[in-house]
Amino acid sequence: MARSFLIIIGCILSVHLLAQSPVEPDWALEYSPEHDPADVNLVPAVVPGAVQLDIARAEGYGPYYYGENWKDYLWMEDRSFSYVCNFIKPVINDGERLVFNSRGIDYRFEVFFNGEKLLQQEGMFTPVRLDLTTLLRVNNELRIKIFPIPKKHREPADRSQASASVKPAVSYGWDWHPRLVPSGIWDSTWIEILPASHLDEISVQYSLNEKLDRAYLRVEARGIRLSDCSLSWNLSDASGNKIDMGYLNVYKDKGVLFTEIANPELWWPHDHGEPYLYAYSLELRDQNGTLLQTWDGHLGFRRVKLVMNEGAWSEPVGFPKTRSVAPILMEINGKKIFCKGSNWVNPEIFPGIITRARYEELIKRALEANFNMFRVWGGGIVNKESFYELCDQKGILVWQEFPLACNNYEDTPEYLQVLEQESRSIIRRIREHPSLAMWSGGNELFNAWSGMTDQSMAIRLLNSLCLELDPHTPFISTSPLMGMGHGHYVFRDPDTGEEVFSSMLRAHQTAYTEFGMPGPSSVEILETIIPENELWPPRPGHSWESHHAFNAWVGDTWLMMDMIEDYFGRMANLEELVEMGQLLQGEGYKAIYEEARRQKPYCSMALNWCYNEPWPTAANNSIINWPNRPKPAFYAVRDACRPVMASARNYKLSWSREEQFSTQLWMLNDRYEHVEPGVLRATLMAGNKIMELGSWEFGIVKANTNLEGPVLKTVLPRWASGGFILHLEVVGHPEYSSEYTFLLSDKQPKQ
User: Fold this and answer.
1) Which of 66, 276, 277, 613 could staple 626 via S-S, CB 3.0–4.6 A?
2) Does residue 181 sit in the same domain as residue 145?
3) CA dist., res. 442 & res. 480, Å (int)
4) What's the pTM value of the predicted model, to 2 decimals?
């Protein structure tokens, strides 16, 4: 009889052996606090996790996210650490194997078993699988030595230190992220007993015919000593009904099956259909029919393409035409989809502590926000498997970047070798998820501060690997490409005085793949991260600056206190500052999302920077505070991303009494269904004062199309109120209604 896990550390997905009660060993972390090898500390370790967190627990460090405590952790960058696990030899039957597995160890490390070095590796995304059987003793020691974090150079101590490694650059310091560089075992890790014949890897790939009514599958299994075994395949629909069965043709250590599925149910992003998933299983049996192993997974059928945005081929003008803007219009199963979403960053500074529950909480929020896409930003990690599983289930498209960002990555053979190793592992792990919509080489690699081009060897390598391993998923070199927009990141440009309303009217981008609007965190969060004596007023050189991170305080980039006071007057306290700053963030984000949608079909995406946070910031462009607390801007964005809505194209935030107010009415429709004709009424409200602005009898709003309406104008009364609201009501459809907040005064803010 085959048996299950002997030792479990973390969790294992999709593979099942016959059950045995698991034994969980204790891991310890060994380190030297003063560079003296003779002075060694041994403390309990949590796996998966991070060496920094283990040491902090053992030595009583304060939370890294409070005040400037994060600086206490910096010394750990340049030290080596060892994870140590001791266990007694288990009972192993003839032919069975004891195997060590890890989905991720960060970053340069060696693995020893009973004093024998089994592996030396660089890279946190390449899994580890080592047979321990021949070295087993009665008492056993598994040791993993973690080397200091990679640095291309000692100075400057910034993200450029990451340019010779495939390690997320964000942890070296960013404008919203402190310098905290994780090390250690960060993903699921376990030891298991395997039968002599067993599976190591399964690949299920498919293609669809042009009509999308037939799927052609290639099922491949790899393992050890499979030639004397049978390997069966079963595919079930969402109701559990088996729709396809068969046996793989097994030869030596590989099995292959080709099969077809007629009229498959298609997988869709949640706002355009059902994210339909099939379940499959493979059963490995020996020549006597004894079940040795099962392997379970899910499969979603969809066709994804990037096609040219409507009108894009007309640019640039002139002849000969060389290069137009890049195709960035997402087509799913033949339907053109407007992508509304956000840039996803690590939910935690230390990715080892991210759980499936944390992913699920944040993804549920994205559904609430009417998002259908995450851009997984190249400055951070490639997420754990549960992130992609949940996006599959919930119907969220994933734009996946490789972990390259804002650096000129080397063309050296050493770097390219590690990049290829890591990228192959990433592609092979993620490629079968139906939520995967596109690959990207990384973030802002063609910018002046990066200096790369599409001829850089790293970009060419990634392109070729995606073509080899996942040819049906689109690839782009980086974001942004020609035609795509990154920025603006403030409500009002401090140099020109231009507000977001007018800058968006001038914008002409095929996709807004990064745009920001800063807002402070809530008072409750600020009180948990900034010492009481530093809370008010905000000032540089203290925790407020640390919780912006490097260079973000220059010009007060995220807090923008001077600008807030220019609009609202001098702030009396922290509560006022937070309220007014959050108002600007919400109105600014509404303006960008809605204007991007109004520019459809030439524009095809609106993805803000950013969705979430890896730690609690004082002020940031995020709409979700760490760990999962929505800002008021979240709800503004939610409303701006409704599939069907009444929208107003507005021109500025602050108006003067007796000034002529104007706005343009629109109906926005992202559904593949017509919206019936109706009446849209516009009303201005100031306190208990109400003023009818006008109405619009609109006709049919065609499927996946916007309808432009009239410009309404009126002279504003001398209301005593300091602000007013524009309310749009679609008669009989309150779910389409919208509101916008404006300021009212006798003077205009500085320009």
Assistant:
1) 613
2) yes
3) 10
4) 0.95
